[in-house]
């Protein structure tokens, strides 16, 4: 991100930042507006916030709308202009004046967020892990999107047929599920093998991950084809009235000696960073540009050595990192890169100082 302008987003009434540096650190006390600035970048990249409903309305209380603009790094000489606007008329999200997301692979801004609840990826519902896997796969295999939409349609029809008790109609949807499932699984397996290799290379830096393995569960038994698994599951699916197996059940887990690894919050945060880094390396191996990383209070929950090791990996990447840091002075802390760091200090939603380091 080269520049960022934020108007009426939460506490930030009007903020303009020159952010063209490999590492950008946003410092400030609690509630100063640090996460809000990361949220602004996220809005530009994804067109939605990463904060749930509990964060309340995003537009500054008493104002009519929110505007975020940013020029991002790209091959074009002046970068490219991203814009997000939201008011009572609706939402507008554009790239160089054209609707976002752009068609095809023309995505100049891909981001990776490590937020306050990164651990939930490992501990939460399998859907989170499946979505994470597919989102990362999608960047190198855009056809996955159409397959997933088709899968969702087939599963809906199949569930309806199961509730009606089966019959000839069910056989049609069984075939559909089996064909689609094998295709989606094939794409996932290729991505996963590559991703797992990268993950293990990175995990070697952290002794707590000795002997840990990243495993993929495809959603039906490894030794069966999906068609066979569908036959085996027939009775259970008819009695439950919905699909119990298939690519819609896939996920991944981190295990040791066959059991899911129990991790502390700090360890889980490290693992999530490594999973994201490994995914980015797969993308880089396939010729994609580096992502922009948003690290919200990365120091929280990590001891000095662990943070040093992690930053040793994150800080070496080619792409940009924007970090937030709880500090009452513009002290950039340990996550910097010499002569390549900009620090912005925020108080009450406004930038009070900026400096290069
Ligand atoms: N719609 C809104 N209008 C005005 N202020 C808002 C709105 N939504 C949230 N806020 C305020 O914005 C602040 C939240 O800012 P933010 O989460 O960016 O802080 P932070 O600097 O990341 O803090 P912490 O270090 O505690 O996480 C809070 O003080 C909150 O009350």
Structure description:
With 357 residues, the chain is α/β, with parallel strands linked by helices. It folds into 2 domains: 3-110 and 292-356, P-loop containing nucleotide triphosphate hydrolases (Rossmann fold), CATH 3.40.50.300; 123-260, RecF/RecN/SMC, N-terminal domain (Glutathione S-transferase Yfyf (Class Pi), Chain A, domain 2, Up-down Bundle), CATH 1.20.1050.90. Helix content is 38%, strand content 24%. It contains 8 helices and 15 strands. The protein has helices at residues 34-46, 120-123, 126-140, 144-163, 168-203, 226-240, 265-285, 304-314, and strands at residues 3-9, 12-18, 23-28, 65-72, 80-87, 90-95, 98-99, 111-114, 213-217, 251-256, 259-260, 292-295, 321-326, 341-347, 350-356. α4 (144-163) packs across α5 and α5 packs across α7. The radius of gyration is 22 Å and the shape is globular. It starts with a strand and ends with a strand. The mean pLDDT is 94. The structure holds adenosine-5'-triphosphate. The site of adenosine-5'-triphosphate (ATP) has 17 residues, from α1 and β13.
């Amino acid at each position: 991100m080269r520049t960022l302008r934020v108007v009426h987003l939460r506490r930030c009434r009007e903020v303009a930042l020159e952010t063209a540096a490999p590492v950008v650190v946003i410092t400030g006390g609690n509630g100063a507006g640090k996460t809000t600035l990361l949220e602004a970048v996220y809005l530009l990249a994804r067109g939605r916030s990463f904060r749930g409903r509990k964060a309340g309305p995003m537009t500054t209380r008493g104002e009519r709308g929110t505007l975020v603009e940013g020029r991002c790094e790209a091959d074009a000489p002046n970068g490219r202009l991203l814009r997000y606007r939201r008011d009572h008329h609706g939402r507008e999200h554009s790239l160089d004046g054209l609707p976002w997301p752009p068609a095809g692979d023309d995505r100049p801004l891909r981001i990776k967020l490590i937020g306050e609840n990164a651990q939930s990826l490992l501990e939460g519902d399998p859907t989170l892990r499946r979505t994470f896997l597919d989102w990362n796969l999608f960047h190198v295999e855009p056809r996955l999107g159409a397959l997933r939409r088709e899968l969702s349609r087939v599963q809906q029809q199949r569930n309806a047929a199961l509730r009606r008790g089966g019959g000839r109609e069910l056989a049609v949807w069984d075939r559909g599920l089996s064909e689609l499932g094998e295709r989606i699984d094939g794409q996932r397996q290729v991505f996963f093998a590559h991703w797992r290799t990268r993950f293990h290379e990175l995990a070697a830096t952290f002794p707590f991950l000795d002997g840990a393995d990243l495993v993929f569960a495809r959603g039906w038994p490894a030794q069966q084809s999906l068609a066979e698994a569908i036959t085996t599951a027939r009775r259970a699916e008819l009695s439950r009235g919905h699909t119990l197996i298939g690519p819609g059940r896939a996920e991944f887990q981190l295990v040791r000696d066959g059991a899911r690894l129990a991790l502390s919050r700090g360890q889980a945060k490290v693992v999530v960073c490594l999973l994201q880094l490994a995914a980015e390396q797969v993308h880089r191996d396939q010729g994609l540009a580096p992502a922009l990383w948003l690290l919200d209070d990365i120091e929280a929950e990590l001891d000095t050595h662990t943070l040093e090791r992690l930053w040793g990996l994150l800080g070496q990447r080619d792409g940009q990192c924007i970090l937030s840091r709880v500090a009452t002075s513009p002290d950039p802390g340990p996550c910097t890169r010499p002569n390549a760091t900009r620090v912005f200090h925020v108080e009450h939603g406004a930038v009070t100082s900026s400096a290069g380091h």
